[in-house]
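> forwarded from #structure-qc
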């Protein structure tokens, strides 16, 4: 409970260190049952801080241990966490397979499926399968609405906002993001507050609502720095750069400091935002390279839909094609 409280309030490094203490204590005492769950929790602590290799190694260890001991709950937990780590490094086919497996495990053994539905829904949205994404996210929202904690309700609503944004329904997306933001603020979840503010800021930049976008993104940036979360920090400041010369240099400095600790998709999105501001082809080239990697590592059935149905991916592909035409 202490680590959860630390994580919710954005004290991610302290939460990770607390998980490490529990992991070390159980490992040294030979308590393998507790060690399995603690290893998965430590993995996620490292993921939030951008330590992807450590997170991957810990997740695979946790999953092997849970399977060896026959602990189905920890197998589900570690499978879901490994899906998140694989998504973070751009291995979307493997990530989707693990998230599908996590949902099946939850259904098989009777665990609540709301987090697995939400996470798989996000994955489907990013792959351009908007119909299935909406179905999974609506299921997650229905399962969580009215429950005492509503722990994952904001995730489902934020995911539905993303689908609405991809479908070109800006006002509906703004409403859903606003609803999700109110829930995470009420719950005191600082990092989710930051990510939802980035969603709102990005959307309002596209809607031409500059003052509101700046407010949202500045708040997100403050949370990212406070929580020491590289992906949130870099993405927020990259969108701020769209209407601030000072923020452009700050974004370039943030890249220099954090880039290896930024999730693959966030790195691609931030690079494209910076290209639109600076016209420096280095950023477009890198955004396109990162997109191609995602496409090559996506499930084969989604390699076309992830371009056709996801505006960011479509825009990067179009910009790269246009650049090729100019150079020919």
């Amino acid at each position: 409970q202490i680590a959860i409280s630390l994580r919710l309030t954005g004290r991610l490094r302290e939460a990770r260190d607390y998980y490490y203490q529990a992991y070390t204590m159980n490992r040294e005492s030979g308590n393998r049952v507790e060690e399995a769950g603690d290893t998965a929790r430590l993995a996620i602590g490292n993921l939030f801080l951008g330590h992807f290799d450590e997170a991957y190694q810990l997740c695979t260890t946790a999953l092997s241990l849970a399977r060896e001991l026959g602990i189905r709950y920890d197998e589900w937990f570690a499978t879901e966490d490994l899906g998140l780590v694989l998504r973070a490094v751009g291995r979307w086919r493997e990530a989707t397979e693990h998230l599908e497996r996590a949902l099946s495990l939850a259904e098989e053994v009777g665990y609540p499926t709301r987090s697995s539905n939400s996470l798989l829904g996000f994955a489907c949205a990013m792959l351009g399968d908007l119909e299935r994404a909406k179905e999974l996210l609506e299921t997650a929202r229905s399962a969580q609405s009215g429950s005492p904690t509503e722990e994952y309700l904001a995730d489902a609503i934020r995911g539905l906002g993303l689908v609405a944004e991809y479908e070109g329904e800006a006002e509906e997306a703004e409403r859903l993001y606003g609803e999700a933001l109110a829930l995470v603020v009420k719950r005191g979840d600082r990092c989710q507050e930051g990510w939802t503010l980035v969603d709102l800021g990005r959307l309002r930049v596209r809607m031409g609502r500059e003052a509101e976008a700046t407010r949202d993104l500045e708040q997100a940036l403050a949370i990212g720095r406070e929580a020491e979360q590289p992906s949130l920090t870099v993405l927020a400041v990259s969108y701020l750069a769209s209407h601030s010369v000072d923020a452009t240099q700050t974004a370039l400095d943030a890249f220099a400091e954090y880039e290896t600790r930024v999730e693959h998709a966030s790195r691609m999105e931030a690079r494209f935002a910076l290209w639109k501001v600076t016209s420096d082809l280095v950023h477009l080239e890198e955004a396109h390279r990162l997109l191609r990697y995602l496409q090559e590592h996506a499930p084969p059935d989604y390699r076309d839909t992830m371009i056709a149905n996801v505006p960011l991916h479509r825009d990067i592909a179009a910009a790269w094609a246009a650049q090729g035409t100019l150079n020919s």
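QC bot note: The chain has a mean pLDDT of 92. The two ends are 60 Å apart (CA to CA).
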